[in-house]
């Protein structure tokens, strides 16, 4: 068994090796992955600029809009992210991403045919399932194309697609909606109105991008770290088995296979979650029942998956669910995502309602400045995180902590000012600061697992940004807004209550990451891993 001190010495020796060169092809692959992530967030975020029109045409509330953008998408994104992350660890990651890109692009286009909130919910679920392939595959590919010293930078560059896509979605969505409605004031071909045409216009190009993605070369896992790892000879058998562990009600079959005691406990947990969901709907209003049902399904699925992972792959379970440093890192970043998802989604609808700005102008101002702020923040944050990592394994998390605390003042300024110019400036500053948090948190999560576990670790990391940040942040803001007379200012600022929780989680992570990283291999061996 390797002692922590020996692991630390080996880590130090590795850092004294000559720096590994990064090929031009690696940067080319990263460029394509950024395009994929841009489209990922165009298709996801376009709901923001279309929100007020959808609310009017489908007779929805702000809480419904928060549910559609957040929970309906996030729960299935996170659920399928687990088996798809597992598949990314054992199958051809490039093919997986290409298929997923085609699926979510088609489902985005299908959103344009929605006539009711229920139909749009189904389409959003499809987008979530397709997009669940992207980041587990991309994070794993980037970790095999870039050495440790540049990994946070590469992941930050990839993550810039989030902000570029979010900004581009506002610009494209606003322009398409207004142009379509101007050309067809009574509805265009197939009776489509502007927001429906916008969904179709941004969805279909993804099918062409999927063909380009297919040309990327698949690298050997772990080779760049000197730990070559080969995929499973039967990846889809493992994927099908994973579905039994995470997708309800198939989870009952998976639990039954592990014994009657496991099944009984699974049913008890499911019943408890159902009762809590029903209780929350009684407490907060029957109209919120769909929110708590979806979220309850997600939490139950995560429990089922974690218990199955413990039984089937103890080393992976121990390094992810059994490592406080990993959990505090992911949940700590989840608190950053809680606030940032709420403010980024509701920014355009808020400005349209409060300042009376046209959608095309909002797309240019809020979309353009948001994209620039996110791009600058995530790139600068990634570079600073890598520089701080050179001083210690937990160094990157100081940037994540900054991204949690620094946006508070500008967010308060943005959602209390009477000036649209001041709103844009404050939002720009807050967006730069919050976006700086991602690269360091993501790279730290990859640091705490073995190469074969990276796809699963990424899926787990995104549980925090989806089930915690995306499924709850936008909904909470919308619910508080709807409960206070459509006051989006109060709604968005209410999400700041999660900041103290994030501070405690990141503080614990900073204290525990060094020991967790130093004992990584010894803990894996203790759990039965053969290295």
Can you walk through the features of this model?
With 531 residues, the protein is an all-alpha fold. It has helices spanning 4-15, 24-45, 47-58, 62-88, 93-111, 117-131, 134-145, 148-183, 194-203, 205-213, 235-246, 250-257, 260-284, 289-312, 314-320, 324-355, 359-389, 396-405, 408-414, 420-435, 437-447, 454-483, 488-494, 499-518, 520-526. Helix 3 (47-58) packs across helix 8 (148-183).
List keywords for this structure.
531 residues; mainly alpha; globular; disordered N terminus
Question: N-to-C terminal Cα separation, in Å?
Answer: 11 Å
Helix/strand order, N-terminal first: HHHHHHHHHHHHHHHHHHHHHHHHH
Count of separate DSSP helical elements: 25
The backbone outline, from C-alpha atoms, is: globular
Q: What is the mean pLDDT?
A: 89
Rg, Å, rounded: 22 Å
Strand content: under 5%
- Strand elements, count: 0
Structural class: mainly alpha
Helix proportion of residues, in percent? over 70%
**Low-pLDDT segments, ≥5 res:** 1-18
Largest sheet: none
